[in-house]
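Re: Re: token formats

Sure, here are both.
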Amino acid sequence: MGFFESLLGGQKKLKGVAPDRLFAMTTAYVAMETELGMKTAGSAGIVFQPLATSDFDQILRDAEELLHGTAEEQGSTLESADDEFGYRWIVLRDPDFEDLVVSLNTISTELQGGGYGDRLLAAVFAFEEKTQRLYFIYNFKRGAFYPFVPKGDRQRDTERELRLKAQLADEIPFEEDTSRWFPLWEIPL
């Protein structure tokens, strides 16, 4: 433990917002598809805490306008909704996985560039494995991914999540602290 860590009570410095890490998912997807038999569900989303300021609204409108313009060219759709906890979801649907990654990166880059990177919560990618839906969640505040495999009513398949981490550890930066693998139960993907 370093000097500053001991002064701060042993807390490690968070990695912070690193939207460029989203692109690790494009290379990981090759391994997911070829080695693990996972397919994209054709949807991904970004969730953030909106702020009631004209500046924030303008940045968000600009990002959505940019995405709407490219969405028509790419054959993707874009929708936005607020959840019961006051967070906003921007959901993209596109059969091309790389388009999903680029679009989520566009939104996160715009918010971060406008000084609102701290409002970003997570980017979520939906996958299908046989008949099961599973997700990879990128926690912007931690700068790392983790798998989320829901099973039944508000239960998760922790064993499968740990197996996915082991299988893809060389492909994407994983959150090492599994207590920070927070479930997102109402994912609108």
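Second one below.
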Amino acid sequence: MTRLLRCKVCGYIIKESKLGEKCPACGVPKTAFEPYKEKVSEKRKKILDLEIHPILTHFTVGFSIFSFVLTLLTLIFPTFYRNEILSTVVILNVSLPIFVDLTLMSGILDGKIRFKRIITIQHIKKMIIGSVLLALAISIGVISFFLPTETILIPLVFISLFCVVCAGLLGLIGRSLKCIAFPN
């Protein structure tokens, strides 16, 4: 069985066999480490170790940012690869609701596995902001799919900017939840 160690200074957890002379996170000597025992069942740990929610979150954030930047680029430089950029924006915007929905569902699953209950204030905030992001993503996807993109660039810039803001807020809340101890 793999023995885990935890840095007393920063809380970094590492396999004993991987630890060098210093903590890879904060640089203190290896003497600052103490034995650590996982507080989550093996079954729950296997699911969490897949990192499904964080991976899907990166797609959502990336699609939101690229949609905003490319749409803005088309407004600023209207002749610079316009058709190619607009085609890319449409693909991103039509794909965005799918990834937001998958991210929202994986976040709920992750929360239930990680915390067993997701009715804390932080989780509720994440679900509300995630729902707003999903509504924005659906609207941007529908608009991009059914309307000529070149005629709706300004609304697309604003909607995609709101998507980026929502994704950023979700990331900030998620970061604060990441360090919470697992329930037994």
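The longest strand covers residues 4-7. The chain has two domains: 4-37, 44-178.
- S.
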